[in-house]
Amino acid sequence: MPKDARVPVIVVSGFLGSGKTTLLKKVLATPELSDSLMIVNEIGEIGIDHHLLEKSDDRTVLLDNGCLCCQLRGDLQELLVDITLRRRRGELPGFDRVIVETSGLADPGPVAQTLYSDAPLARDYRLAHVVALVDANNAEGRRAAPVIASRQVAAADLVIVTKTDLATQDQVAESLDWINTINGFARREIASHGDIDIALLAGVSPFAWQEPTETEQGGYLGSLLTPHPRDVTSFTLTFNEPLPRELFQDFLDILVRLRGADLLRVKGILHFEGEAAPVLVQGVCHVFDKHVALAKGASAPDQSTLVFIVRALARKDIESLWLSLLSLSR
Ligand SMILES: Nc1nc2c(ncn2[C@@H]2O[C@H](COP(=O)(O)OP(=O)(O)OP(=O)(O)O)[C@@H](O)[C@H]2O)c(=O)[nH]1
């Protein structure tokens, strides 16, 4: 067999906040996989992840404000064709593989299918892996969009159960059971903070993606029709002035206390009063990270920007909460 010279593509999916960016940051820091072109898809109007990956801009492409499995599927095709042309003309630095980070609400199946069904793409690219991340600590979040969450697992050849440092043994076992009911064929790994055996992704996989059959899906997916839940919405709050840190923390604490279960994903980069470095703020349902100042020289939007992906929660209610706290504090 002649060596397959096509560029391998790794599709990384996983429900909102399951740890995709954390894993990819680690992956891109390894010598085996640092030579990758990243395509990052985000649901919100304003993308945040590309600021967090700490890769040079010409190696990271953002496809934001839409879902890769529906609205942006054509954009991915065009992007990959364009990348091939620019690479041939020497306008792009060389890369050994493409990694596509899908949004937390995308079904990776159609994305993978695109690589097979589009003849020009299939000439230059081959699907190497579909990876799905499953947050052991957030079964509740997955239940907000069960069809998408299970399709992510169904399409994968490698499923990584994440955040095992936060989860109980029962939660890990429950996640593995849930994965088994959907896809008994994928390799399963357990990881915290993105620590996986890099060889799992660096190697050439004999895997060929196929639409899972009903039996493989345990009949489960067949019974579920609409992939995107209607009550899940996304919006971005932007703040022109630097924010008072303590008040903002109160605002987040109140939001978490009142509606934590519906905060499927919150992430943003904020400028706080009197602080030189912008700060990364992010959370998944009830669990928020400690705020981390961005490294010197890291790119950041000029205004404070906070992206919300929420269930049954209106933008105006969140804005009013912030405005009331602000006026009470003055
Ligand atoms: N304790 C713990 N936190 C983690 C782990 N992996 C990720 N996180 C945190 O979980 C949150 C979400 O992680 P991300 O890597 O941004 O998740 P994601 O899947 O890229 O998120 P979206 O792209 O927004 O869907 C962040 O606050 C991370 O710091 C882990 O293994 N353990």
TrEMBL record:
Q: Which UniProt keywords apply?
A: Chaperone, Hydrolase, Nucleotide-binding
Write one Gene Ontology MF term.
Answer: nucleotide binding
**CDD domains listed in its UniProt record:** CobW-like
Reaction(s) catalysed (UniProt annotation):
GTP + H2O = GDP + phosphate + H(+)
- How is this protein annotated for GO cellular component? cytoplasm
What is the superkingdom listed in this entry's lineage?
Bacteria
Q: What does this protein do?
A: Zinc chaperone that directly transfers zinc cofactor to target proteins, thereby activating them. Zinc is transferred from the CXCC motif in the GTPase domain to the zinc binding site in target proteins in a process requiring GTP hydrolysis.
Q: Which PANTHER family match?
A: COBW DOMAIN-CONTAINING PROTEIN (PTHR13748:SF62), COBW-RELATED (PTHR13748)
Q: Can you name this protein?
A: G3E family GTPase
Query: What species was this sequence derived from?
Result: Pigmentiphaga litoralis
Q: Give the classification, highest ranks.
A: Bacteria, Pseudomonadati, Pseudomonadota, Betaproteobacteria, Burkholderiales
